[in-house]
Amino acid sequence: MGKLTIVGIGPGDYENMTVRADRVLRECQTIVGYHVYVDLVRERYPDKEFLTTPMTREADRCRMALDEAKGGKDVAMVCSGDSGIYGMAGLIYQLRGAAAEPEVEVVPGLTAACSGSALLGAPLTHDFAVISLSDRLTRWERIETRLTAAAAADLSIVLYNPASRGRPDYLQRACDILLRTLPADRPCGVARSIGREGESRTVLPLGQLRDFAADMFCTVFVGNSQTQIIDGNLVTPRGYRDV
Amino acid sequence: MGKLTIVGIGPGDYENMTVRADRVLRECQTIVGYHVYVDLVRERYPDKEFLTTPMTREADRCRMALDEAKGGKDVAMVCSGDSGIYGMAGLIYQLRGAAAEPEVEVVPGLTAACSGSALLGAPLTHDFAVISLSDRLTRWERIETRLTAAAAADLSIVLYNPASRGRPDYLQRACDILLRTLPADRPCGVARSIGREGESRTVLPLGQLRDFAADMFCTVFVGNSQTQIIDGNLVTPRGYRDV
Fold it and tell me: Which ranges of A97-139 would DSSP assign to H, the alpha helix?
């Protein structure tokens, strides 16, 4: 029986991967994942067996990884960002069930809340909520409730999956919901293609974020009531009294 | 003029540090930080100048780092976990102000939401809130509002700084607030000393979490309405329909 390690590779570049993730990918025999994420690591670990599935076949991908490990291979399943936060670790545990075989290890990676905020400044120095705008697996009404609650509680908000080809206007819809509670001049930011070719960052007020052409490579940050723009950077103070 | 890099070193062990954080610490001349975090890296980078300050002197520590960089040194300021999430990056930007000197770079690291959830299973596969229970810089009423809002919106919740010697009963107080909204059998978990000597994990219901003897080395996870315990692991499903 082999072992299955679910590896968060971070935003996608080698430097933002952990030493541990790099070691697991060097030591494994088979790398399984969504083809876009596998392509991010293929060149650096060329002597591996690579198995990929398309985007919406998550359960198939996990079953494939579990089967390979049961068949004796040491398997690394790659997730972009973290392996747990909107990643495949949960589905692997669900599909493995009570059997407790094969052995599973979860290796964390930098989620976009960490890597995107570093690119934009320091928007998450205080409490925050992470909310995905994808309604493929979640009813939109639930997303709306969470946006409203986070804004009312003065949490900074990180929006994952703000838009895609099939959901081009979801960021606009989310901003319209937030604008019921938050002012149009609330400082916000967008991190795009973090750590990959064409990386970019935009700092802008919530009223303009509404009309920002976001895509699936974007992570969006909405500041709390204290968030400021300092020298072009999005900064949420912690509240130190002697500053 | 030197450069100041704020480095998230992750939970504390070398393997969970990013390749980029390791490179910055190897290349810098001076390492600045809270003495406990500096001690985590001192052995691996022995040929550096080390500057430390006690726990509550955050602004002094940041001014020291900025001054060293202005004086010509390449300085790395170490933060445990991420450099931005409750880290020093925000304070550095505040203190540097509009001067834009010295050059500042923020290197993200694994925050406890990532590293702790990997240790416990996969509790953050869906939307979540991160809330610190420390009221040193935040009024308790605000913390209470955020706990209540997060529970009502069915967000998983990660509690940072759940207790300390001066606040031994804060986790109990937080649980009592959550128990107004959430059932006592809600699956929860505690990750302690992640990646360090004596690392441990506990999975338990919210009603028992209330009486858990948490300390400053703990990070606490409260599941959402879908969170399950599978083979001893805390798992929040994403909602895939074919499982």
Answer: 112-120
Helices (H), B121-234: 140-152, 170-178, 206-209
**In chain B, which residues have their Cβ closer than 8 Å to the Cβ of A128?**
85, 129-130
Q: Which of A7, A189, A153 is nearest to B114 (CA)?
A: A7
ipTM of the complex: 0.97
Which amino acid is present at A126? H
- Among all chains, which residue has been given the structure tokens 């390749």? B19
Chain B hits for A142, Cβ within 8 Å:
154
pLDDT tens across B43-60, in order? 999 999 999 988 788 999
Chain A, window 193-212: residues with a beta carbon less than 8 angstroms from a chain B beta carbon: none
Instruction: Please tell me the pTM assigned to this model.
Output: 0.97
Residue A132 forms beta bridges with which residues? A160
Mean pLDDT, to the nearest integer, of A90-98?
A: 95
Which A-chain residues 124-163 have CB contacts (< 8 A) with chain B? 124-132, 137-138, 142-143, 145-146, 148-150, 152-155
pLDDT at A241 over 80: no
Report CA-CA distances (Å) from B198 to A179, B22, B43, B195.
46, 23, 19, 9
Strand partners, B52: B33
**How are beta strands B128-132 and B156-160 bridged, if at all?**
parallel
Say whether residue A18 is in contact with chain B using an 8 A CB cutoff: yes
- CA angle at residue B107 from B122 to B93, to 5 degrees? 115
Task: Return the number of CB contacts < 8 Å for A and B.
Answer: 274
A172–chain B Cβ distance below 8 A for any pair: no
Model confidence pLDDT, tens digit, residues A132-167: 999 989 999 999 999 999 999 999 999 999 999 999
Supply the pLDDT for residue A100: 80
- Quote the pLDDT of residue B239: 87
A16: which 2 tokens?
Answer: 């933002």
CA count, 13 A, side-chain hemisphere, B213? 1
